[in-house]
Amino acid sequence: MAHDSHDSHEYIPEIAVDRNGKEHVVQGWQGDTYGGKLGFWLFMLTEVMMFGSMFMVLSYYFTLHHQDFINASAGLDRVLGGINTVVLLISALTMGLGLLRMRSGDVKGAKLMIWATMLLALIFLGVKAVEWTNDYKEGIFLGLQALQSGNEHSLPFGEILYFGMYFTMTGLHGFHIIIGIGLMLWLLKRINSGKVTPEHNILHFNIALYWDLVHLIWVFVFPYFYMIGAGGAIHG
Amino acid sequence: MANHTTVDYKAEKGGYYKVLFGLLALTALTFIQPSMFLTHYTFGMQMLIGTVKAWIILMYYMHLKGEVLIGWTVIFAVFLVVFFFAIVMIDVNNFQFADVSHITSPAQ
Amino acid sequence: MSKSYFDETHCAFGHPKSTFMQWMLTIDHKRIGIMYAVVMFTFFFVAVAAALTMRFELFAPGQQFIDAHTFNQAFTLHGVIMVFLFIIPGIPAVFGNIVMPLMIGAKDVSFPRLNWFTFWLYIIGCIVALSSLFNFNIADGKLVFNFADTGWTFYAPYSLNTDTNVVTTLVAAFILGMASILTGLNFLVTIHRLRAPGMDFFKMPLFVWGIYATAWIQLLATPVVGITLVLALLEKYFGIGIFDPAKGGDPVLFQHLFWIYSHPAVYLMILPAFGIMSELMPAFSRREIFGYRTIALSSASIAGVGYLVWGHHLFTSGMSDTAKTIFSFLTFFVAIPTGIKFYDWVATMYKGKIVFSTPMLWALGTMITFAIGGLSGVTIAMIGSDIHLQDTYYTIAHFHYAMLGGVVFLFFAGIHYWFPLVFGKMYSEAKAKLAFYILFVGFNLLWFPMFIAGYLGMPRRYFDYLPEFQIYHQISFWGAIIFVTGLIFMFYVLIQGIRKGKPSGVNPWNATTLEWHLPSSPPPLENHTKVPYVDFRPYEYHHGQPVVKFDENMKRID
User: Fold this and answer.
1) How large is the average pLDDT for residues C274-284?
2) Cα–Cα nearest to A107, from A21, A19, A25, A198
3) Superfamily assignment of C28-546 in CATH?
């Protein structure tokens, strides 16, 4: 994926002529903005399938170990989780505004918004790191005794599975945030080299979509892990 | 090929802010629900609020409103996930060996 | 579009002068397809060798050549290579790449550079898979064969506890899965965006419909197995517990997740093959296909309904009876669109003028073998009979009749059909037909006895067996020898065709679809000289002759 498809501005589409002499433009693979959008949406559908499967695993064990899940959820830090939710929400706004600025011709403003989004993403990761560190200090982390079976610190089955999936899903989500930061840095580079412009910005559009997807995943991850035990472990 | 001709930033940004406040309000709802209303259905309510948020994000932030082909592909993918969910949940909710399985009734 | 423009833009980056580097960096769909074919069939023969090793061992009860552990590794190797390195990339990677864009009048796929990247991702996956064969023992400097012994299905909890190289194999499968996803994505956008003007969905050739339906499965089903493999790795290394009963995890969940992908995967395999059949039927019956719309829609419905039936692999796993019933019903249901296709193909042949060229011979042979494969599948869609036949040789016979006798036979048919397109030469027709007969006889001798052995209780993946089953293993053994002989002979005929075959001309079969209306064979880099306006159906014949004719400048002259 080395070059933007709008590199070769010499592309001239072919014309096909029907039997009545009417001309039809042949859609080529170059310069196909809608194709770029469609392709990226299809890629995002694979992420939906992937995270959807993980939610399915989560629900499977929520069914088998219902009360354990609620108890484990009650112990999560809803303040930190809530901060992250708001941070990510605002970052979705800044990303969207950045795209809007780009399309309206304000390239400088667009770049500012992208930097703002990256900053918020880093804050998100920072808060997550604090959460994970706190969990580790309480002895709840992958590889520690609480999450292994058969020892005196072992948590009940459902709680082991809950935390196993908690670290997996928030970990994978965080990994996607890191990728998002990388994509935004790359986007800035492409803007600076003039490859992404107010007229040709499908890359910016797609990266904004990606960021919205990352936010969308959190929209479900957050209540599932943090809120099901929120009413003080009332039957959820 | 350009997506649109020049877009009017000032006119469009209002929409973005509206969505933001809607999402913030729903987030607040998420926090108060477990102790305020329908508390015995927390899981269902949380997922419902999440779904509404997701809908708004998809339609407005991700510009899905007005996209026909892409809209149908999203529906297809979501339908598949829902189907997988439904059948696997039916299976696990009808688990026939709950009394004797180590997973659900470990012998102490 | 000048030739130099294409020469310069047809590499992922740079302007290499050497032919070798031009191929290594090529973004041209035709070259990528050929490279896939070379790599895939090399691995195919490695997997055949693994299978032949097993057949030798199983000729008589007791141990003769390899021990039980090595036997387990042999069937795992056979399965992993055949499924992940050969048949899942399969027809889409080769003919989807080479032929599909030609059939819709496109110059390439929608994302040619992604196509290049995807090919090399596939190669990386193959290399990782190869690296899982051996461990290098630093202590005595020896290479130890330590391939996974879990079966290609990697069921938990055994796959998580075994010392063999399961992890590297899972990583390889993940990478190969990503390649499959990206291929599907590329083809979906290509088919939606790059069809020639006037070619709406119901004017596309049926092979394109097959690739389209397949691409949907590649795109949406593969991520599920991708994440399953990741979860299995996390379980193995971080003990997250989801497949470990000692922590309250459920191994049956692994089976659910695994088969949610792997069942649609078999439709991913057969749909392009059915697409090839739908191309061969009109061309070699010299008349329009019967029921174009129903065949097209049946491809779509097989892809759709195929997502819903995975539980029939879990009938004996401890799944709930409710779920079993639902899956059995849906599995019967999914057989219907395939049946519709078969009837349509037979109806196409009715009152046609059948041409018994090699591709048609393969197609007809497949109709017999796939019918057996598909119908035997229906017999085990019944829960009651499946309890008895699950994990026996009956199952093995079923899926080999379907995958080998369906997918691979049609793959061979496609090779013989599009051979002149790709190479501009023809193989020896008489020798190719002989190869077919040898393969057909060998195939049935090899696999049919297994239906009986399985019915009588011979379990699958077993290193040893009771003496009463020996006769079936012996017949299968000789069938395998004949089959492998046929394979070697068939490839010999094809390679001789490449080296010394007679020039074939551009349209030796006098077929109608657009890939036969190129200025030369092999085709030029730029594909069609001019993209035509498509206001005609893909299989228009009148009295055995194509209706639509083009001159060298793609002007209509009919």
Assistant:
1) 97
2) A198
3) Cytochrome c oxidase-like, subunit I domain (1.20.210.10)
